[in-house]
Amino acid sequence: MKRQAAALYLLVGGGSVSGVEAAGLPTAVHELAPVVVSGDALVGEVDSASIGTIYAEQLELRPISRPGEVLEAVPGLIVTQHSGEGKANQYFLRGYNLDHGTDFATTIDGLPVNSRTHGHGQGYSDNSFLIPELVDSVTYRKGPYYADYGDFSAAGAADIRYKDRLEQRLVELSGGAYGYGRVLSAGSLAIGGGDLLLAFEGLHYDGPYARNQNFNKGNVVARYARRLADGGRFHIGLGGYSGRWDSPDQIPQRAVDQGLIGRLGFLDPTVGGRSYRINLNGGLERDLGPGRLALNGYAYRYRLQLFSNFTYFLDDPVDGDQFEQSDRRNVYGGAARYTLPGRLLGLKTISDLGLQTQFDAIDDVGLYRTRARQRLSATTVSDVRELSYAVYAQSAVQLADWARVSVGARFDVYDFKVDNRSDAGTGPANSGTARDTLFSPKFTLVLGPFARTELFFNAGQGFHSNDARGTVQTRDPRACDAGADPADPCAPVAPVSPLVPAVGFDLGLRTAIVPKLQLAFSLFTLSSDSELVYVGDAGTTEASGGSRRVGGELGLYWKPLRGLLIDGDLAWTRARFRDTQRDDDGQPIGQRVPQAVEGVAAFGLSYRSGQGWDAGLRLRYFGPRALTEDNRVRSRATTVVNLGLGYLLTPRLKITGEVLNLFDSRDHDIDYFYESRLAGESGPVADRHFHPVEPVNGRVTLRYSL
Questions:
Q1: Which pick of 1, 127, 529, 556 has the fewest CB atoms within 10 Å?
Q2: Angle at CA 369, nearest 5°, toward 365 and 370?
Q3: What is the pTM of this model?
Q4: What pLDDT band is residue 32 in, cutting at 50, 70 and 90?
Q5: 555: three-class secondary structure by DSSP
């Protein structure tokens, strides 16, 4: 009941309370949102209007089409896809096209998901191994204001935590349109004073596209958790994931207009990929002296082969432009955190001191020219060793009943070693070592509550790391045929900065002054020293000039009637490069940041009847955005509505139906604008390329609880 009450008062725009209040201790802001966020908050207090926690009870009634959409519970975050299943989603938040994860850090049960120096893009965040039914909570934070968050977290971060145990064992069988089928078996066993959670998931999906996706994935999770006698806890988890798929990738608008293909068509039938990973992670929390110690460790093995073709015959009119991106790595890391309550000059304080480290042993991160998934030549093939370690500290002080302040900082060190093994003539030139350090200060001021209202001011610096290969590069491997000097055939390029700072400010408010209604509002600005921009003809991202974003967010959480919950959020952003961008000839082309989303909105309704049936409705609006720096080409808006209905047939058997894209929207999941060349065309054509929203489709699930 305590957590259900916490979920009831959760503010979509942010809401929190510390674990000490959950234990029954008094709080200075008892009128406001009671949700456990983390140990860095003072008793009963939060640090921003842009943080919060969503619990499993709220996620259960959200109809979703793929695991990554669990993250759309984060207000203002859009999760989309420019390909089919299997590949990591694309993310948009606070005016950022986060591509596959850059500047939005995600962890699942303490395991970092974002990949550094990844074959398909920096920060690649593939959460296909997530099993939504195991999720206990999603805690999110937006902005670079928290000392315990480092790489990829400038725009925001989300921590997805699995349940320690399932109250009932369950078996789920799902089926639906376009060859959708899924089986899930999960349950907990009491062993050795703790709980062993076991889960297996198998899924197949063909999809509605003219190119059958043939997506097959398997997931297994084994997780043991135990409470300790002193109130502490520990857990250890082992998981495995494997997926294979064919890709109905983004397509050019002119091919549809000319009748060459339909809007669900394809041009290259041989693109697709496969991926697998094996995860091991664990954590321990317990009292140590006057404070509390938290330890976390992880190791995982990961493999990806991805075949793409975005430009068709632009570079190679004979064999085509298909390419393979390869990634094979072992990753090891851990963190330690010590939280100490105390007093300073009679004022309540709570301080954290933490250490974090990660080592990526990456073999064969490469880019190959291919035809029908057969390698023709290597553009770049590298072995990379990337080591990072960080120390951080933060301390919060309760200045008065109506004022508190938090000051923190982190210091990061990154070491890169790259061995370029490619045969494209750039090997020695693009090999080497690099090191970079960054000091990131943080500050928070909270005033209130006044009339069940709090005010927030946040300031801080965050960062994202760049691809290790870019930190040592001196030659462009994609331009090796353009050099005039046979002894030096590749175009010279300058290395990129290893660590790219981003500075942000938030001014926020949250209030529960209206009964049964909570509101959060924030204004923010976020400036980055370098922007990662998608490059269509390379299928990757490149660092460009610095950027600045200014925007606002509004969130609400309302319970007008018993069993009925309504939530909604709005976000709008203005994004610009600091300097006018120029083309290859040096001509100015504008300051717009391509793909920078300008407005998003979401609305959700969930209802539990008390008579065995429930319903969930979600509307998502993804606003238009500039596709070129001069704003000459813009995307259309995308609006999708999903509906879910459930009924308890017996105390153990429940049937659930979902209708995805309820109104059969023909909008686009994603749009790009770049040059490509179709078979038979005499040269490059600048065109809009898009991936369509899937047509209306239904799914039915039977759940049997043991």
A1: 1
A2: 110
A3: 0.90
A4: very low
A5: strand
